[in-house]
Design goal:
Blueprint (H helix, E strand, L loop, with lengths): L3 H9 L11 H20 L7 H11 L2 H11 L8 H29 L17 H11 L1 H4 L5 H12 L11 H16 L2 H7 L2 H21 L6 H4 L13 H22 L15 H17 L2 H4 L6 H18 L2 H6 L1 H4 L9 H9 L10
Helix pairs in contact: 2-3, 2-4, 2-14, 2-16, 3-11, 4-9, 5-6, 5-14, 5-19, 6-9, 8-9, 8-13, 11-13, 14-16
Length: about 375
């Protein structure tokens, strides 16, 4: 009997709830979206003179970042600015912003032969704008969860942003406001909305929607200024009348939501070979910019003009997709953890660190 007591006690002892598994669907979506981001960035130096490439670039730019931001908003729904959440926000967003803002500045100084290019924490360089935007959006989450018509208010702010020239010069505030509605939309979504996108009829409808958008992009490619898709400048700065800003904001929002829904409808629900890469998209996002900028800074396209020809465009596309895939792999994520997922326990009180430990990876797991 004494020998059975420990076993009985073990059976009766409360067991910790099993850790939630990551949702393969969202990891797949994040990986596929980051591939589109990298490919579109790689097209920038080589698309001049090619209407088809410019159209493809415009088509992808219409929804790739909106889709990524919608998912970011969806996984920010539980953010209440608790101390442990603020700790993760600092370690997962603020630290990577500072590290890569410095890294991209140093890279430009060296690769672009511009030794006097200034450091500036309030002027995001290249793709680091997304980190500072995510920081602002997530901090404002409790507000958006409290107001009555959050999406309408966010769209109003985005429209007003297009009427304010020069606003993008500090913290890329123009982009923060113009992409804000997608984050707020993600905050407003529930699991059943994504379930709806996976219905067979929705997936079938998504095909003609995507095809029609691609044809429309080819038709308007020579006449539409890409600045509208970057959302980094006001209407006046794009040589458009002031009233065009709010109208284009609403039109692009509608197009982006429809195309993002069509894209998400075809994201695989099951685990695939690339599902594990969804956890490393922050690495792929932050690192692929060095490769893309090398094409520009080092004059690679000028040296090898065949890259702007059809065969070269295919090679650039495949190379960008392969490179960002490698940059999302677990080994790269582990090596880069000091910059993208630092522990920072030394900088916070012990009670906050304990709370963060219990909630680690909560933002990347399936929402309840």
């Amino acid at each position: 009997m004494p020998q059975e007591a420990p076993a009985t006690a073990a059976r009766e002892a409360p067991q910790a709830p099993p850790a939630k598994r990551r949702d393969a669907y969202f990891d797949n979506a994040k990986y596929l979206a980051i591939v589109l981001v990298a490919v579109a960035h790689a097209w920038e130096p080589v698309m001049e003179g090619s209407r088809a490439t410019r159209a493809a670039y415009m088509f992808v730019y219409a929804f790739h970042m909106p889709a990524f931001i919608i998912i970011s908003g969806y996984f920010s729904r539980s953010f209440q600015a608790r101390p442990d959440q603020l700790k993760r926000l600092v370690s997962g967003v603020v630290v990577p912003y500072v590290v890569f803002e410095i890294a991209y500045t140093l890279f430009k100084r060296w690769a672009d032969d511009d030794p006097d290019y200034p450091f500036s924490m309030n002027d995001p360089i290249y793709l680091t704008w997304f980190l500072i935007a995510l920081f602002v959006w997530r901090l404002s989450t409790p507000l958006w969860r409290s107001v009555k018509w959050p999406l309408a208010v966010a769209l109003g702010l985005a429209a007003l942003g297009t009427l304010t020239p020069g606003m993008g010069q500090s913290l890329d505030l123009q982009r923060i406001l113009q992409f804000l509605p997608f984050f707020v939309l993600g905050l407003s979504m529930r699991p059943e909305h994504f379930q709806m996108l996976r219905r067979r009829e929705v997936r079938l409808l998504a095909l003609p929607v995507l095809a029609g958008a691609a044809v429309a992009a080819y038709w308007v490619a020579p006449d539409v200024r890409m600045g509208w898709f970057y959302r980094s400048t006001s209407a006046v700065e794009l040589d458009a009348p002031w009233w065009a800003g709010p109208l284009v904001t609403l039109a692009l929002f509608g197009c982006a939501v429809v195309l993002a829904a069509a894209f998400l409808a075809w994201v695989p629900r099951r685990r695939t070979w690339f599902t594990v890469l969804g956890a490393g998209t922050i690495c792929g996002y932050l690192l692929h910019g060095f490769l893309v900028k090398s094409l520009d800074y080092l004059g690679v396209v000028a040296r090898y003009p065949w890259l702007a020809e059809p065969a070269g465009l295919v090679a650039v596309t495949l190379a960008a997709a392969a490179a960002v895939t490698l940059l999302c792999t677990p080994p790269v994520r582990r090596v880069l953890r000091f910059a993208t997922e630092p522990e920072l326990s030394w900088a916070f009180r012990q009670d906050v660190t304990r709370l963060s430990g219990r909630a680690a990876d909560a933002s990347s797991r399936t929402s309840r």
